[in-house]
Design goal:
It comes from Nonomuraea typhae. With about 400 residues, the protein is α/β, with parallel strands linked by helices. The chain has one domain: FAD/NAD(P)-binding domain (3-Layer(bba) Sandwich). The protein has 14 helices and 19 strands. The strands form 4 sheets. The protein has a 7-stranded mixed beta sheet with strand order 17-18-11-1-2-7-19, sandwiched between helices. Strand 8 and strand 9 form a beta hairpin. The two termini are about 25 Å apart. The C terminus is likely disordered. The structure holds flavin-adenine dinucleotide.
Length: about 400
């Protein structure tokens, strides 16, 4: 079977890794001109996530590049440390920068899968035997199946299921991340400042302290902007934090030069079904639980493992139904865990910020101190993974192609 995957971040390459092992031929189309760096750290936690990474053969590489972050601190506008954030709640078993993870998955798949960068699917025309796919740039091609692993704003979802507005619910926050120098010489740590109006600015050391990530969160009504216009996104972010003190003006000066800005709304995606005919959705395109769930990447990896395993064992079309049956309750748990986190994580008023800091300070002494961490772990482990057969790695090695 020839399978086309749209999106080369986490879900797409993770699926390609497993599909090619089972002997499927895979093409991945990615809108960006090459593998995308950028983003902050993503976490894997619990037995299911680790098992899937182990079976994909990437766990050791991920562990080698994990962030090894220590405690994070909440600070005031003078940079004075106020309280240590509870790391058993925020950190997973393995934490890695999203860009490093995407690179590891790309390197693990580029030999067996065909990558087409700088292009996007323009239309899907399905008949009884396959799908004719037209691209914005490359020639029309036919595939047996098409997978949308192209994220929150999925093009495949729009083409097969209809406009994003039907499926997206906005959780009231925007998030931005970009790379900066490690101005504060942070050593495997991060500092975050809560600001009135439901805003947070933070800086974390990254990549062995050689650089840092600037991370911003702010509450807002839904904003109308062009997702492909980085200049516009820079202006929105700079305006939202123009009155902030501490190190924020310096980070905003770096923003002008940053070439890896990630800027997006915090939203969830909900669809009644994830497949239609020969088209299926995976990862954020299907079920985005939002970064507030702390599970977006784990869900994408587990979903890729299940979808590939079901295609190899049950085959199309049964595989799609079985994939939903296994993943639906798991995804629902992660989506639920993200609801209500926004208000707590990015408090709107100074009083609420003080209450949040107080609760962090008291947490180690409270009888239910482990309960939150245990509940997050339980959500991450709430999936029964079938045992799919191990498959030989094929020898075909097509080269990369840019359209
Ligand atoms: C640059 C970047 C930075 C991120 N930073 C963070 C972060 O700091 N914290 C966090 O929790 N999550 C972050 N995320 C989201 C996180 O990667 C996902 O929530 C999770 O890993 C699930 O991944 P996914 O592969 O389903 O979707 P995504 O990671 O969103 O990947 C979707 C991919 O599809 C590509 N794409 C989009 N449209 C098209 C199209 N029309 N044709 C072809 N390709 C297309 C995108 O360029 C992207 O590579 C980031 C995502 C990206 C792309």
């Amino acid at each position: 079977m020839d399978i086309l995957i749209s999106g080369a971040s986490v879900a797409g390459p993770a699926l390609a890794l497993m599909l090619t092992r089972y002997g499927f031929r895979v093409t991945i189309v990615e809108r960006a001109p090459g593998p995308r760096d950028g983003g902050y750290a993503v976490d894997f936690r619990g037995r299911a996530h680790l098992r899937v990474l182990r079976e994909m053969g990437v766990l050791a590489a991920i562990e080698r590049e994990q962030t090894n972050m220590g405690a994070m601190w909440s600070v005031n506008e003078s940079g004075k440390k106020l309280v240590k954030m509870p790391d058993d709640i925020f950190a997973g078993d393995v934490e890695i920068l999203r860009g490093d993870l995407a690179r590891i998955l790309y390197e693990a798949t580029r030999g067996e899968s065909e990558y087409v960068f700088g292009d996007s699917i323009a239309s899907l025309d399905e008949d009884a035997h396959g799908v004719a796919v037209t691209f914005e740039r490359g020639p029309t091609r036919r595939f047996d199946l098409v997978v949308g692993a192209d994220g929150l704003h999925s093009t495949v979802r729009r083409l097969a299921f209809g406009p994003e507005e039907r499926y997206a619910s906005y959780l009231g926050l925007y998030n931005a991340v970009f790379t900066t120098p490690n101005h504060l010489n942070l050593d495997h740590t991060g500092l975050s400042l809560n600001l009135p109006g439901g805003r947070m600015a933070a800086t974390y050391s990254a990549r062995g302290n050689r650089e840092a990530k600037a991370v911003f969160w702010f509450g807002s009504e839904p904003l109308a902007y062009d997702r492909h216009d980085v200049g516009q996104q820079r202006r929105i972010l700079a305006d939202a934090f123009s009155d902030a003190g501490w190190i924020v003006p310096r980070l905003l000066a770096d923003l002008r030069e940053a070439d890896d800005l990630y800027f997006d709304s915090i939203s969830q995606i909900r669809l009644d079904r994830w497949s239609r005919g020969r088209v299926v959705l995976l990862g954020d395109a299907a079920w985005c639980a939002s970064p507030l769930s702390g599970m977006g990447t784990g869900l994408a990896a587990v979903g890729a493992y299940v979808l590939a395993g079901e295609l190899a064992t049950a085959g199309f079309p049964e595989a799609f139904a079985r994939y939903e049956q296994i993943m639906r309750p798991y995804v629902a748990g992660a989506q639920k865990s993200a609801e209500g986190v926004a208000g707590f994580m990015v408090p709107k008023t100074r009083l609420m910020t003080r209450l949040m800091n107080l609760s962090y300070r008291l947490l180690p002494y409270l009888p239910w101190k482990g309960a939150m961490a245990r509940s997050i772990r339980k959500t991450a482990e709430a999936v029964s993974l079938p045992d799919y057969p191990a498959a030989p790695v094929p020898r075909r090695r097509p080269s990369d192609r840019a359209s």
